[in-house]
């Protein structure tokens, strides 16, 4: 699953993409509209700023805005930046590969082989969708227990 930090970063960037070209957007607006704790949002926006995805201006009329056009930023970019990888397990990561502890050798691991396929499909999907792309909303999940 995506960590809360990654989900917050995506929602903040979606908010800024929706308001692209409208000038600086105040942190309080993003926090309130996206239901993100302001202190945590400050840390996330600082990280996104250091990565060159957003710019900011201090002061009464200050705020945050995208440093790049929404069509230049993919969801894959965001996930990799905040999470480090789109892979579900460290042995399937391209950029942050680590051999799993307490596992069989990688050359013999069918779980790793499966997770490499999942990583590639996930990366293809996330890299193909930009902040500028419309995303159709899905109905809320049923609260009935589903088979796992």
TrEMBL record:
Which is an annotated Pfam family here?
Answer: Rrf2
Q: Give the keywords, sorted.
A: DNA-binding
Biological source species: Novosphingobium decolorationis
Q: Which InterPro entries match?
A: TR_Rrf2-type_CS, Tscrpt_reg_Rrf2, WH-like_DNA-bd_sf, WH_DNA-bd_sf
Q: Tell whether DNA-binding is among the UniProt keywords.
A: yes
NCBIfam families registered for this protein in UniProt: rrf2_super
Protein name (record): Rrf2 family transcriptional regulator
Could you tell me which SUPFAM superfamilies the record lists for this protein? Winged helix' DNA-binding domain (SSF46785)
């Amino acid at each position: 699953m995506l960590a809360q930090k990654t989900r917050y970063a995506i929602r903040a960037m979606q908010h800024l993409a929706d308001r692209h070209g409208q000038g600086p957007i105040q942190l309080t607006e993003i926090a309130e509209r996206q239901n993100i704790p302001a202190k945590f949002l400050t840390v996330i926006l600082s990280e996104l700023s250091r990565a060159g995805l957003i710019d900011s201006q201090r002061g009464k009329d200050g705020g945050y805005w995208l440093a790049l056009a929404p069509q230049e930023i993919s969801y894959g970019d965001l996930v990799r930046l905040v999470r480090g990888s789109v892979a579900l397990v460290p042995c399937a990561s391209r950029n942050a590969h680590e051999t799993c502890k307490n596992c069989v050798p990688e050359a013999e691991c069918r779980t790793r082989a499966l997770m490499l396929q999942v990583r590639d499909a996930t990366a293809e999907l996330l890299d193909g969708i930009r902040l500028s792309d419309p995303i159709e909303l899905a109905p809320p999940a049923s609260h009935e227990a589903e088979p796992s």
